[in-house]
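I would like you to sit down with the pair of lines that follows and say whether tokens and residues agree.
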Amino acid sequence: MKKLILALMVFVTANLFADDINLWKKSTLNQILQRGELQVCLEPGYMPFEMKDKKGRIIGYDVDMAKRMAKDMGVKLNLLPTAWDGIIAALVTGKCDIIMSGMTITQQRNLKINFADPYVVVGQTILMKKGLPAKTAKDLDKPEYTIVTKLGVTGEIATKKFFKNAKIVTFETEADAAAEVLNGKADAFVYDQPYNILFMSDKGKGKLVHLDAPLTYEPLGWAIRKGDPDFLNWLNNFLRQVKEDKVVGFYDNLNQKWLRDTDWLKRVQ
């Protein structure tokens, strides 16, 4: 009887070990290491997280983070510009290993993909035409006002949630939507706080009003395919390390470079 129990234990242990080996072989992290390249989907155009400079190179917060990630993995980095409306499908179908594109963690997206821990927390704020009698978001919710935002992002969700009476118009890019307000064709623009802060420091300065109290709580996270605990574990440990390593100061320097300073604007104008 003891021999039978021992044999069963050995059999179960061997099967569990085999399962672990198979999971690791299928893991995106293992595939990245075997390939020698980290493939990142992103949509250039979301300042300051990813955009193109004057020479056509993709730069930004997420790009610097991806470079550090690839370096710590010991692999090359391959940035894959991807349209926002197809970026989740690109990940799910294996066209890239990870989405690093300022993506807000939502329950709806989480049904299709998994997220690592948040690396930045933002919220939706409002850029408004100067001279309007409105003082708050609530004041803008009237039929005579036109509110614009980008199509297919959390800004659109927030706009539809908070503005039931105003006219809502969506655009393919955040730049086009913001330009509508700047050119007087719309009354207000709803979008992520970092983008709006930077817009106000440049094109919107003296022309628009920033209602900077966030309408929403929105953590940004890296997205990966479901069923990949090894990759998720590595990403969360990587994020924890870069956040807490104050000697190197990578994370603090990254926030200073892209979210507080505006020197990088000269590279994209």
